């Protein structure tokens, strides 16, 4: 039996979760981090090189240090850009069972900017009520973000049961609502669709094992996570992120 006061430490559990996610970052993430640190070091060295510095030798050393930091940061940036250009970029995020902090905003915000005008979504399971709400929430994110989305393409499968009418009605309602915001939703149905992926016209492609439906059912209507999906526990799944300048349309 555990002794009083020896139970799991919430702070320790949170720290372990953060560390696990940090370890899962791939080489690209580490390169980005190195570039940030390198730039900070360059800025720090530049601050040291203030007008009051009288020692010429120190000035010379600081100038060289600044130049080296900036060159290293630029080389890392060029390497990452080339990886994207060659279509070799790949980042993987593993979402563990019951993990939180993976709302659509948290997951996609890094890849959405003012250049995003067209989005392609391929997901066979935009059928049931909660899945329709997931898709609606995803569309809301696209409207709120700095990107200026004009067209959203959705390829999904039709519900073969009694939910077919509700599915079609729900998607048409979302389409009408998006139209009021100046966004065109193009709907297409396929009986053979299986893969799940999301593409942006700026070259980013995100593949989620469970598609948009990776959130667990909330414990109740008044429980944390019902509204804020960063607090909603997730099903275990894997997110693969690629970049290719020549994004193919579905």
From TrEMBL:
GO biological process per UniProt? midbody abscission
Annotated MITD1 C-terminal phospholipase D-like domain ranges read: 101-243
Instruction: Tell me the InterPro entries matching this sequence.
Output: MIT_dom_sf, MIT_domain_contain_protein1, MITD1_C, MITD1_C_sf
Pfam assignment, any one: MIT_C
GO CC, alphabetical: midbody
What the entry lists under Gene3D superfamilies is as follows: MITD, C-terminal phospholipase D-like domain, Phosphotransferase system, lactose/cellobiose-type IIA subunit
Q: What is this protein called?
A: MIT domain-containing protein 1
What organism does this protein naturally occur in?
A: Myotis brandtii (Brandt's bat)
Organism placement in taxonomy = Eukaryota, Metazoa, Chordata, Craniata, Vertebrata
